[in-house]
């Protein structure tokens, strides 16, 4: 099965993510970060990432969080797997794919790779909750740990 497409995952499809099972058969190419800064939001159980210039298009608040080089993972997927992921991510209704430049964080000379970034559609803006940091999974794990320590025993 040829691996024709490179995608950048930054949320529930990543290792440790609740939907990582969807990546069976895909080839993990390693960790990566976005070469361009993005603004990361939580949409209630899954993330969204936006280019700063997209914030106005979506009607996001003016006090948006700072843009960060988002951490995630690169995967190679076949055309069939990409179609399955598009259905799963509800592309283009809920999310849409956009190319993004990615660099491998451990290489001394960063090499950029064109990959697909899945970004939320404009009508999702009312759900957006800012994420503090460059990794949505780490942010959700911290948020859950905080809730556990605050809840009564």
Question: How does this structure look, described?
Answer:
This protein has 153 residues and is of the alpha+beta class. The protein has one domain (5-150): Gamma-glutamyl cyclotransferase-like (Hypothetical upf0131 protein ytfp). It contains three helices and eight strands; from the N terminus they run ββββαβαβββα. Strands 1-5-2-6-7 form a five-stranded antiparallel sheet. Strand 3 and strand 4 form a beta hairpin. The longest helix is centred in the C-terminal third of the chain and has 15 residues, at 136-150. The protein is globular. It starts with a strand and ends with a helix. The model has no long low-confidence stretch (mean pLDDT 81).
Summarize the model shown:
Helices cover 19% and strands 31% of the residues. It is of the alpha+beta class and 153 residues long. It has a five-stranded antiparallel beta sheet with strand order 1-5-2-6-7.
Features:
3-stranded antiparallel sheet, single chain, Hypothetical upf0131 protein ytfp, alpha+beta, 8 strands, 153 residues, 5-stranded antiparallel sheet, 31% strand
